[in-house]
Amino acid sequence: MIRILVVDDSAFMRKVVTDLIAKMPGTELAGIARNGQAAVDFVKADSELDLVLMDVEMPLLNGLEALKQIKQFSSVPVVMLSALTNQEVTIEALESGATDFVEKPTNIMAIKDDWIREFFAKIKAASRQQRRSLSRRREVVAPNPNNGQVKSSLELRRNLKAVVIGSSTGGPRALLHLITALPARLSVPVIIVQHMPKGFTKTFAERMDAEAKPKVSEASDGMLLQNEVYLAPGDYHMVIKDGRLYLNQEPKMHGTRPAVDPLFNSAAAYYGGNLVGIILTGMGKDGAEGMGEILAKGGYTIAQDKDSCVVFGMPRSAIEKGVVNEVLSLDQIRVKLEELVR
């Protein structure tokens, strides 16, 4: 049973969230808190807590400051409940250790089924992170599941034309870790899909641009690819054609838009064997098909390892599909990526 603490100063929002938890099999309400300080106190007193759902803006102690305090003494996953107006604080919360965030519905009186499905999926994924952290020592992942030739960065650089990266839950913090290691001048474009709603991607791109040496931009339709870093905007799939990035609003894939597979598939078709694909932490199986396309066209594929993932869903799917050349920790990917693009 997943025991959840709900933290929100709005009585109405607390009612909405607790009613949803009551309808979700395998979950139970551990308690409620009306501000960040009460949340910190609750987590200190309850060592059996599995998950915290916490609002960003609250009196006495806001969600961001409460998160930072909780992370000083507890590994319990925290999922932020964020309004569109709290983009910058939400991105900072992800940097500070929040597992994920759920954007509050724009019309609280008419919550859509898509929002409820996302809410349930993120709770399940975050709670799996807690259970895995208690048992990960007993689990082993093959270091090179594809049994293909592991290539050095020097060998890959010879004909490299681009790097594509896909991520979901836990991705913002992982991406910041990678991008801040890159040099100011890149030898190839680095093109990213991160599962994130519209509006938040622009803020996240600006955050990466401020902290990284190379230029980082949220992609726009028809944008000419240069040796920079590009992030797909929320609510749009992104594909590569004729050296440009194109956006579309075709149906969601794997329940999300943007999805990783459209980018990876189109990149494989355009760059052929001169491409490296990297799949990072995230729930579900998005990216596995695209990793297969990259491998089939002669490209090289890397997956993040289980121990350094927040959620091992997307890398696991690619590994189990047999389309991964190399499994590396996030720190190892950071080193390899910097070597590839310098």
UniProtKB/TrEMBL annotation:
Annotated compartments: Cytoplasm
Reactions catalysed, as given in the entry: L-glutaminyl-[protein] + H2O = L-glutamyl-[protein] + NH4(+); [protein]-L-glutamate 5-O-methyl ester + H2O = L-glutamyl-[protein] + methanol + H(+)
GO molecular function, one term: phosphorelay response regulator activity
GO biological-process terms attached to the record: chemotaxis
Modified-residue entries (4-aspartylphosphate), positions: D55
Residues of the active site: S168, H195, D286
Residue ranges of domain CheB-type methylesterase in the record: 156-342
UniProt keyword terms in alphabetical order: Chemotaxis, Cytoplasm, Hydrolase, Phosphoprotein
Domain Response regulatory: 3-119
Entry's EC annotation: 3.1.1.61, 3.5.1.44
GO cellular component terms, semicolon-separated: cytoplasm
Post-translational modification comment from the UniProt entry: Phosphorylated by CheA. Phosphorylation of the N-terminal regulatory domain activates the methylesterase activity.
Record comment regarding domains: Contains a C-terminal catalytic domain, and an N-terminal region which modulates catalytic activity.
Function: Involved in chemotaxis. Part of a chemotaxis signal transduction system that modulates chemotaxis in response to various stimuli. Catalyzes the demethylation of specific methylglutamate residues introduced into the chemoreceptors (methyl-accepting chemotaxis proteins or MCP) by CheR. Also mediates the irreversible deamidation of specific glutamine residues to glutamic acid.
Annotated family: Belongs to the CheB family.
Protein name, per record: Protein-glutamate methylesterase/protein-glutamine glutaminase
Species this protein is from: Ligilactobacillus agilis
Highest classification ranks of the organism: Bacteria, Bacillati, Bacillota, Bacilli, Lactobacillales
Gene behind the chain: cheB
